[in-house]
Structure prediction request, 968 residues.
Amino acid sequence: MGQRSVRANRTIFERESELAAVDEALGELTGLRRGGAERFDRSRGALLAFAGRAGIGKTTLLAEVRRRATALGCTVLSARGGEQEQRVAFHVARQLLQPQLAGSGETDLRASLGSWYDIVGPALGLCAPTGGAPPDQQGLRDGLDWVLTHLAVLRAPMVLVLDDAHWADPESLGWLAAFAPRAEQLPLLVVVAYRPDELPDHAESFKGLPGRAGGRPIDLEPLSAAAVARLVREAVGAHADDAFCRECWAVTGGNPFESVELIAKVRDRGVTPTEPGAHLLRDLAAAVKGSGLVARLERLGTSTVRFAWACAVLGTEIHPLLAAAVAGLGQEEAADAADALRGARILTGAETLEFVHPLIATAVYRAIQPGVRVALHGQAAWCVVNDGQGPSAAARHLLETHPDGDSWVVQQLRAAAEETLRAGAPDAARSYLARALREPPPFEDRAAVLYELGSASLLTEPATTVNHLRAALEEPIADAALRQHIVYRLSQVLAHSDRLAEASDTLAREIRVTDDARVRLRMLAEQFMWDAFRADEPDHPSRSRRLTALADRLGGRDLTERYVIGLRAWDAVLRGEPAHVVLHHAERALAGGLGWAEPDRGFEVPVLVALSFMYADRPGRTEELFTAGIADFERQGWRGAHLSFAYTLLGYVRYRRGRLSEAEDFVRAGLRLAERVGPGTPAHWYAVGILIEVLLARGRITEAARTGEQYSFRAPFPAAVVFPDAQTVHGELLLARGRTKEAAEELSAAGRRLEPRGIRNPAWCPWQLHLARVEAHETPDRAQATAVEAVARARQFGTPSAIGQALRTAAEVSSGADRLKYLEESVAHLERSPAGYELACALVSLGTELRRTGHPGDAAEHLYRGLEAAVQCAADALAETARDELAAAGLRPRRLHSTATDTLTSTERTAATLAAAGHTEPEIAHHLHLDEPTITHLLSAALRKLGTDHTGLKAALSTQDPTPGTPP
Prediction:
């Protein structure tokens, strides 16, 4: 016979294994207190999922979970998806987190949420959205992750219970599905229940569970005949005979909800529970659901039916007075209707009403005639606005109404869309605006609605955004500012969709018809920017001359002027003008401020200005600007493509400084973020290209080739200019793999593409340097000429790193005295540069040449220095080459005075130090502003280098500085 536990007069039968799994999870969660201090081991939490069809007992089981968790002193967060609330963004997230935070005043709430206040506060309904740009969806999820992680640690042990997950809103469900597998790392038990055939695709993680659930959810089975018999006899008496009980089981199929409701009908009707009365059961069972339930409801009277309809339209957490208003009933009449529905086991509750079971709510809702249902939703929209709940609460009802040209409806939907978009739910906002467009809006508002609709689709459906914005421009627009915003947004989305020529043409057309000089300058600045990224720009030299003339006239008095000056600095980098010219314009662009998250502006120009300092051998200044830029992104909640670019390019800065291990960490973090944004995006091209460069520098050629294959890093290359130049990196990779003929073709093609555009700076794109190495195999004279030309261009730019790198290549393709002269000059320049890896390469090459030409003493000095520099850079293959050269000279490598901890990058060291202090991976991720997969990778690398596990981490770090530096 089944295990039994009573809650709210309900008996749970035949759920022994399910409750055992719950008890095991709760035991592990709550049995880990040590000496009164609430510290928890890494495997403390769990994820449990229960799956089953409607009425199988999921809600009853989860109620028992809540009861047991509360009895054990757990903090319980509880939520339930609703069939009518699926379109309400963050409905489930608010149910879970609002009760834990809403009681605090604004000051305490800001203290609790810290930098996440303006990002997650609007999504959770804790504060109004700010006037800035909305967070991206990944940033919002990261914020919700932080809030739940923080609560789980602060109020441990914690149990999160989600019923009817299949009806959760997409924003909440997507977040929870991604977060739930991490519960095992926290003092958190996540328990979900859902109907498996209705669970959306984006919640697949609930179907494949880690840990104790055996890799799959726990399926709930129907009750056996014996269990139904016990239910019958418990309710109507032990005299119920076997035939009657078996018929109860047969007509319900063992469904717990239907069984309980049938038995209640038997008791209410006074049916004798013996075999002669068994023939009545099928008719009674039919009254429990579907048409039978509807017929039973109709017998309760017109007012009661209308009240039930109003409740079904409102969904869950129904306030009686609001339901009365929707139903058009007086207060006393509504109270009588609620009493009747409670008596009929259709509704339950007093101050807040809900349906006894979702099956009943669904049956009642579907029984409403379509015309009446539409009218009730319209009435509900008006009532919730009148009740002070705002346009977002009304919007889901307005979605169910028919278009009727009502400006009030358009007004509410636009207001709801703005609020929802700024809270971080663009999909919901888009559905509201699409409905507003069908209303339709007043003629004079149509362009504005199309613009808002396009803006809501910007991050998720760029092609749709283009269509909406172009349609908006075809409308009569009286407001000049609106037209300008549409043009800016359209050019932006075209550019980000790799349609740079169209972006430039859009701005060019508008520039010709714009009378306002400042607006025209802004549009011209935007056009200059997108043209700078066009790989197929037809007349780059002409644009460069026009840009130079314009920038020299501007003083930088506003953001637009500073953008033009910043683009002038970048153009000087590409063309290889003297570095002091680059630095002059870069400082001018920054003089009045150049934020990375300005409203209605891209982040491209601030990034280009920051990188201008890097190419001009000021990487410290670049890192300062990137640190500030990343802080801007995180304040806005931009943790998708924006943060991917920032991490990737910061990795590139580290690469050019010769800090290859740190560079790899940052680039891999950027690549992981790029993969969340989507394959084939510019963020992918940047990350993969830089990662290949780093791997080649470290000597991991096979891994670099595998990375290129994995991400299809080959032609066709993107229409947008990326850096490092993708085609040049591909040629370098081919050269490293020994495929010289293909490398020559690729690098020559890169030259033919860049030369006509006047892009001739080898510091920005070293295609000539790699081509010279290729040519040296077949045509050494041509190789020397190519290298000498690159040296001349590097000298024109004037940075020690560019000159030193070009001279090293010239030495590589030369011989005799020229080779030695080039190498000595290369080392002299690189010693004055921040290019640590290039210096290591030049030192090893010079030492090798000196050994071969009979200068063993000088050779040893340079090889020893080169070896130490290569080790510090983590250039493993180069270090091995230096050791081989020392051995060939009959010398042993010097013992480097270092410990295992010295091999850690600063990021690895910080992560390891925090882990040794007892911080969890989510906490470390938050501290370092990195995602958890990156933290896992860093800790694994640190443990491997230290030769220990987590238990020995503190001892291994005992000689290390306790406050190591952290990356931005």
Notes: The first strand starts at residue 6 and ends at 7. Residues 106 and 263 are 51 Å apart (CA to CA). Residues 137-154 form the longest helix (18 residues).
